[in-house]
């Protein structure tokens, strides 16, 4: 099966969940990855609502590659706080079951790798292992997104965490945009190193800039100090996704690639143009 395209619904956050999915289908994506917080798929939704949404997605011909939750972030939290995260995560497992979705994003949180301790990894791994055991009851895989300012911000640190979790149903979400920020390799070497641990792929473009007042700009402390980044349209920033797509083809990856574009947008027309641009660029990369 060929790689399929999906759109993360955050860029359509001014639309309802249903309206966002309708636009994604109309533009021509294969899948819809819901932002799992208000106003889209938050944990307070009823199971009946989610089941009805699955029927709507079926009518639209859309799959759900992953539930992009904001759950976890165990490092630095108390036992009570971690238990609460686990309960919220299980709610999304119920949603995943209803949506016929096999991957749920769930992260360790924490400081960046340069500040992380062995205890941080041990703490996060123990709770993620518990989460994985719950996910297994739903036949769901946990996807840990490689993300800056977490203990899983590089391929190496992610694999360390996966080894400590020691569960077969936990893997990595490759995100070249995030890996560009941390100066980690996001091309052929990263895909080869992840191997079977690669369970899902996110793409977005970013650019290092000097002016923090530019639209959408954000600042992050990296290994090189405080840096400023700006979200860009796919293919218009500094993240060269070509080697990644070549590597995915070499590896025989046949899952979804979800576009996570988060450029600033002015109105609903702008949202549509962004979504159309991203799909066109994805299709170009897929050849």
From TrEMBL:
<dbReference type="InterPro" id="IPR050312">
    <property type="entry name" value="IolE/XylAMocC-like"/>
</dbReference>
<dbReference type="GO" id="GO:0016853">
    <property type="term" value="F:isomerase activity"/>
</dbReference>
<protein>
    <submittedName>
        <fullName>Xylose isomerase domain-containing protein</fullName>
    </submittedName>
</protein>
<dbReference type="InterPro" id="IPR036237">
    <property type="entry name" value="Xyl_isomerase-like_sf"/>
</dbReference>
<feature type="domain" description="Xylose isomerase-like TIM barrel">
    <location>
        <begin position="22"/>
        <end position="280"/>
    </location>
</feature>
<dbReference type="InterPro" id="IPR013022">
    <property type="entry name" value="Xyl_isomerase-like_TIM-brl"/>
</dbReference>
<dbReference type="Pfam" id="PF01261">
    <property type="entry name" value="AP_endonuc_2"/>
</dbReference>
<keyword id="KW-0413">Isomerase</keyword>
């Amino acid at each position: 099966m060929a790689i399929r395209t999906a759109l993360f619904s955050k860029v359509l956050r001014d639309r309802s969940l249903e309206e966002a999915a309708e636009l994604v289908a109309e533009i021509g994506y294969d899948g819809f990855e819901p932002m799992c917080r208000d106003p889209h798929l938050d944990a307070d939704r009823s199971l009946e609502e989610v089941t009805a949404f699955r029927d709507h997605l079926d009518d639209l011909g859309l799959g759900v590659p992953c539930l992009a939750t904001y759950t976890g972030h165990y490092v630095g939290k108390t036992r009570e706080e971690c238990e609460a995260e686990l309960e919220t995560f299980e709610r999304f497992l119920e949603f995943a079951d209803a949506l016929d979705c096999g991957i749920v994003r769930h992260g360790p949180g924490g400081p960046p790798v340069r500040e992380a301790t062995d205890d941080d990894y041990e703490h996060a791994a123990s709770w993620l292992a518990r989460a994985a055991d719950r996910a297994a009851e739903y036949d769901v895989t946990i996807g840990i997104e490689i993300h800056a300012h977490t203990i899983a911000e590089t391929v190496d640190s992610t694999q360390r965490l996966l080894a400590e979790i020691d569960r077969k149903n936990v893997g990595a979400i490759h995100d070249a945009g995030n890996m560009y920020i941390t100066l980690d390799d996001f091309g052929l070497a990263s895909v080869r190193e992840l191997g079977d641990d690669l369970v899902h792929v996110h793409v977005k473009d970013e650019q290092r800039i000097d002016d923090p007042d530019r639209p959408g700009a954000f600042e992050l402390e990296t290994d090189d100090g405080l840096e400023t980044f700006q979200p860009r349209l796919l293919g218009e920033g500094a993240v060269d996704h070509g080697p990644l797509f070549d590597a995915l083809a070499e590896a025989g990856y046949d899952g979804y690639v979800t576009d996570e574009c988060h450029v600033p947008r002015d109105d609903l027309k702008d949202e549509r143009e962004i979504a159309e641009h991203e799909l066109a660029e994805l299709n170009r990369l897929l050849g």
